[in-house]
Amino acid sequence: MIMKIKGFIVAFTLLLTVIFNSGISSADGTVPGTSIIYGDCNSDGSINALDLAGFKQYLMDSERTYNSGMDLNLDNTADSVDYAILKQYLLGIVTTLPINAPTTNIKTGVNYKIINRNSGKLLDVSGSSVSEGGNVIQWGLTGGANQQWSFIDAGGGYYKIVNRNSGKLLEIMNSSVDNGGGAVQGIDDGDNSQKWGFIDIGGGYYKIVNMGSGKLLEVLNTSTANGGDVAQWTDNGGSNQQWYLVAQTTGNITYTLIREQNPTADQSDAYAKIKAAMDSAVMYYNNLTNISKQLTVYYNTSVSTADGNINGTIRFGPSRSYMDTRTAIHEIAHTVGVGQSSGWFSLVKNGIFTGKSATEELRNITGVSTDVLHGDSQHFWPYGLNYSSEVRTDADYINHCRIVNQFKKDGV
C-alpha cells in the first residue's frame, strides 16, 4: 500500500511538471502575466551561485536556445557577455539586472593614457617590453608608447585594451579569477581575460572590470611607487581601483633655456637641474592639457626662489630646492595667466575663483559637489602647487594640469 502511495506521488509530480512545461509558459520560460526574473537561470525565484553554474552549463550546450531571462544586457543574445554580467552582479559590481550595454565616452582608435587615481602614475608595460607576458605596472609619466593604450570594441560594452608600443593586449595572467591575479600583456587569443568593461564613476574616472573574473584592475597595496604591481582584486572602493583616462592632447609648450657661453661650475650645475625640472613640467602640460606657449627660461641669482610672467619668461634663483618639477609646473601656470591676466582678476572674487569650467573640474577630482577653488592676486589652491608640501603623489601634478587647462576655457 505504501509503495502505491509513493508511486502516485511521483506520477502526480511528473504530471504537474508536464503541465507546467506545456503551453502554460511562454517561449522564453516566463509565466504569462508575470515579470521575467533576469538572471534566475534555474527559475527558482532567486539569483545565486546555482544560476551562475546553470548559465555555464547553458553556454557549453551546443544546442542551446535563446532565453530572454538570461539576456542580461538586452542585446537579444544570451552569451558569455551575459555570463560575465551575472558574475559581476553576484560580486556586487553590477547592482541591477538587466543592464544595457555600458555607455562610455571611450573612443576606439584613439590612444589614451590610463592614470591611477591614487598614485597619479600611468598604466605601463615594464621596460617597454614587446614580449608575450610582459609585466604591467604603474610608472610616472614618461610620454613613452608603452604608457599609451587604445581600445577595440569587443561587444556587449567590453573592450580589448591594446598597448601602443607592443600591439599586445592587457590581460590577466593564466586567465586567473583570483584576487591578486597579475596583469600582463599577451597576444590576442579571444579569451575573456583580455576583455574589459568600464564603469563610469564620474569625474572622468572609471573602474576597469575584467570580463573573465569580474574583478577590478588595481595597483596592489595602494602603492604610489614607480614599479607598483598592477593586478585584479574584488571591488573594495579604493582609489587604487579607479583610473583616469586621458585621450590624445594638443599641448605644445616649448622653452629655451638661456645659457652663458662660458658658464661657471655653479651655472652649469644650475642649468642641468633647471633643464630636468622644465623637461618634466613641460611633459606634464603637453600630455594633459591643450595649452600652447613658447617660454624663455633664465638662471638669475638675484631671484630669491623662482618666478613666472605672462610674457613667457621664467626665472630660477640660486636655491637648488626650487629647481624641481613642482616649481616649474607652478611657474608655467603663471605664464599662461594665473595671477597675471585680466581674465584671472575678473574671475577671482572675494577669494573664490568663479570660473565654471575649473570649478567643475575641481569637483570632478575631489568628488565633492560643493568644493570651490580659492584664489588671490597670485595663486590658487588646492592643487596650485604653491608649496612643496602640496605634492604627496604624482596625482597632484595631474590635478594641477587638469585645473589649469580649464582655467583657459574660463578665459584666464
Query: What gyration radius follows from the Cα positions, in whole Å?
Result: 28 Å
Largest beta sheet, briefly? 6 strands, antiparallel
The CA-CA distance between the termini, in Å, is 95 Å
N-to-C SSE string, H for helix and E for strand: HHHEEEEEEEEEEEEEHEEEHHEEHEEH
The DSSP helix count reads 8
User: How many strand units?
Assistant: 20
Helix/sheet category: alpha+beta
Low-pLDDT runs: 1-34
Number of domains: 4
Q: What shape does the CA trace take?
A: elongated
Estimated helix fraction: 25-40%
Q: Average pLDDT across residues?
A: 88
Side by side, the strands of the main sheet go 1-12-9-8-5-4
In percent terms, what proportion of residues is strand?
15-25%
Keywords: Carbohydrate metabolism, Cellulose degradation, Glycosidase, Hydrolase, Lectin, Polysaccharide degradation, Signal
EC number: 3.2.1.4
Catalytic activity: Endohydrolysis of (1->4)-beta-D-glucosidic linkages in cellulose, lichenin and cereal beta-D-glucans
Protein name: cellulase
Please describe what this structure looks like.
It is a single chain. This protein is of the alpha+beta class and 412 residues long. The chain has four domains: 1-25; 36-101, Type 1 dockerin domain, CATH 1.10.1330; 112-247, Trefoil (Acidic Fibroblast Growth Factor, subunit A); 252-410. The protein is 27% helix and 22% strand. It is built from eight helices and 20 strands. The chain has helices at 2-20, 49-60, 80-91, 265-288, 325-335, 342-347, 356-366, 394-410; strands at residues 112-116, 122-125, 136-139, 149-155, 158-163, 169-172, 183-186, 196-202, 205-210, 216-219, 230-233, 243-247, 252-257, 292-299, 306-308, 313-316, 348-349, 352-353, 373-375, 380-381. The strands form six sheets. The chain has a six-stranded antiparallel beta sheet, with no helix packed on it. A hairpin with a 4-residue loop joins strand 15 (306-308) and strand 16. Helix 2 (49-60) packs antiparallel against helix 3 (80-91), helix 4 crosses helix 5 and helix 7 packs antiparallel against helix 8. The longest helix is centred in the last third of the chain and has 24 residues, at 265-288. It is elongated. The protein starts with a helix and ends with a helix. One of its GO terms (molecular function) is carbohydrate binding. This is cellulase.
